[in-house]
Amino acid sequence: LTFLGLESSCDDTAAAVVRSGPEGTEILASVVAGQTELHAAFGGVVPEIAARAHAEKLDLCVEEALAGAGVRLGDLDGVAVTAGPGLIGGVMSGVMCAKGIAAGAGLPLVGVNHLAGHALTPRLTDGIAFPYLMLLVSGGHCQFLIAHGPEEFTRLGGTIDDAPGEAFDKTAKLLGLPQPGGPAVEAEAATGNARAFALPRPLLDRPGCDMSFSGLKTALLRARDAAVAEHGGLPRQVRADLCASFQAAVRDVLAEKSRRALAIYLAQAPGEPVFAVAGGVAANKALRAELETVCAKLGVRFTAPPLRLCTDNAAMIAFAGIERFRMGARDGMDLLARPRWPLDRSAPALVGSGK
Ligand code: ATP
Ligand code: FE
Fold first, then answer.
1. How far is CA 2 from its chain centroid?
2. How many angstroms is it from 279 CA to the middle of ligand 2?
3. CA separation for the pair 194, 305 (Å, rounded)
4. Res 3: pLDDT
C-alpha cells in the first residue's frame, strides 16, 4: 500500500509518501516546511498566521513529496490526513486539501488522529508489535498509553497541566533563548550544572502516572529572578545551570512516572515488552538516556524514533492512515476537523492540548 500523508495541525506543514507491504515499510519521501520564522516575532505560534501558511504551502509540499518519491497520484492507494487535535485553522487546511486530492484522483480518504500518528511511529520505524507501552511527550501533550492496536489505546495517566515541551519553550523564553525552546535549552544544559538549582519534582509523592509541569515553570521563574537580582543580570554560566537543573527535573519526573507505567504494563504480561517514547521532547538526549537505563534494568526493550520522526511530520500520518485503512477505515467528504480528539475513548478530555 502506498499512501500520501498530510500534516498541518500546528506549525509544520508536511507531506509524505509511505509504502508498506509484507516486506516492510519505507518512507519514500517526507517533506516538512517549518514556520518558525513566521512566528518568531510573536513568541509563540499564532493560529491565524499558521493556518494561512499551511493553506499556501500544502500543495507545494504535496508536489515535492510526490516528486521526491517518484510516484504519481495514480500510483497511490489512499490519502491520509491529520484531522485533529490541533489548531483548527491548520487542521481544516489539511483536511480540505486531502479531500480535494482524494476526490480529484478518486482515492480513499483516511482521517488520522495526530496523536495516533506519534503513537504508531515506533511501528513505522522498528516494526514493533502490539501491545507496547508508549510515552507521548510533545509540545502539547504528555501521556502514557498502552497501544493495543492502531485505534485502541489505554491511557494510564498524563500531565494535569502543561506539557513538557511547552515548559521547555517557556523556559527558553524566560532565559532569552530562541524558540523552539527544547533544543536551545538542551544545548545550554550541556555546559550547566544540574545540581546548581533545587527545582521541584512535582507529584512524585502522589501515586499513579499523572504529572504536573506548571509548578516547575514557576519555580524556574523565581530562580531566574533571584539570580538576576544577585548578579545584576543573567551570566552565561548561571543560565546554563538553570537549563541543566530544569532539564534534570523534567527528566527525573518522566523517569519515575515511566517506572510506574512500566509496572502496570508489565503486569499485563506482554510477549516481548517494549517501551517506546515519541513526540518532540523525545528528541532530548538526556531524557532518552535516562529512560533507556530504566528499561535496561527491567529487561524491557526501549525504542525511540529518530529525531526527525519524533517531531511533527507527515510520514507518521501516512503510516497511521495505512494502519487504519488495513482495519477497514474509510472517511468520506464529511470528515471533520477536530480541535480536540482524545486518543483514549474512555477519557473524558485530554488536558494540556490547548495551546
Ligand atoms: P503536539 O504533538 O502535542 O500537538 P507539537 O506538535 O507542538 O505538539 P512536537 O512537534 O511533537 O509538538 O514537539 C515540539 C516540542 O518538542 C516543542 O515544545 C519543543 O521545544 C520540544 N522539543 C524539541 N526538541 C527538544 C529537545 N531536544 N529537548 C526537549 N524538548 C524538545
Ligand atoms: Fe505533534
1. 24
2. 6
3. 26
4. 98
Residue 137: CB partners within 8 Å, gap ≥ 6? Answer: 163, 164, 165, 254, 277, 278, 279, 280, 281, 282, 287
Closest CA to 94 of 75, 72, 117: 117
Residue pair 332/296 in contact (Cβ under 8 Å)? The answer is no
Q: How far is the CA of 182 from the centre of ligand 1 (A)?
A: 7
Q: Which atom of ligand 1 is nearest to the CA of 169?
A: 20
| ipTM of the prediction | 0.97
In the predicted structure, residue 352 carries a pLDDT above the cut 50? no
Residue closest to 331 by CA, chosen among 8, 79, 93, 151: 79
pTM of the predicted model as reported, rounded to 2 decimal places: 0.89
Q: What number is the average pLDDT over the span 83-95?
A: 96
Please check the confidence at residue 262 and state whether its pLDDT lies above 90.
yes
pLDDT of the residue at 317: 98
Pocket mutation for ligand 1, best pick of 7, 8, 9, 10 (most atoms within 8 Å of C-beta):
10
In the DSSP assignment, the letter for residue 324 is: H
What's the CA-to-centroid distance between 326 and ligand 2, angstroms? 23
- 94 labelled ligand-binding: no
Q: Is 252 annotated as a binding residue?
A: no
The model's confidence at residue 351, banded by pLDDT at 50, 70 and 90, is: very low
At residue 350 the predicted structure's pLDDT band, cuts being 50, 70 and 90, is very low
Q: Which grid coordinates are listed for 72?
A: 504519481
Q: How far is the CA of 347 from the centre of ligand 1 (A)?
A: 23
β-pairing, 274-278 vs 132-137, is parallel
Q: What residue type is assigned to position 222 of the chain? A: R
114 annotated among ligand-binding-site residues: yes
Q: Tell me the CA distances in angstroms from 206 to 139, 143, 201, 209, 256, one per residue in order.
A: 24, 16, 11, 9, 11
Residue-level pLDDT at 326: 97
Give the closest residue to 248 by CA, choosing from 186, 323, 338, 293. Answer: 186
C-beta separation of 320 from 117 below 8 A = yes
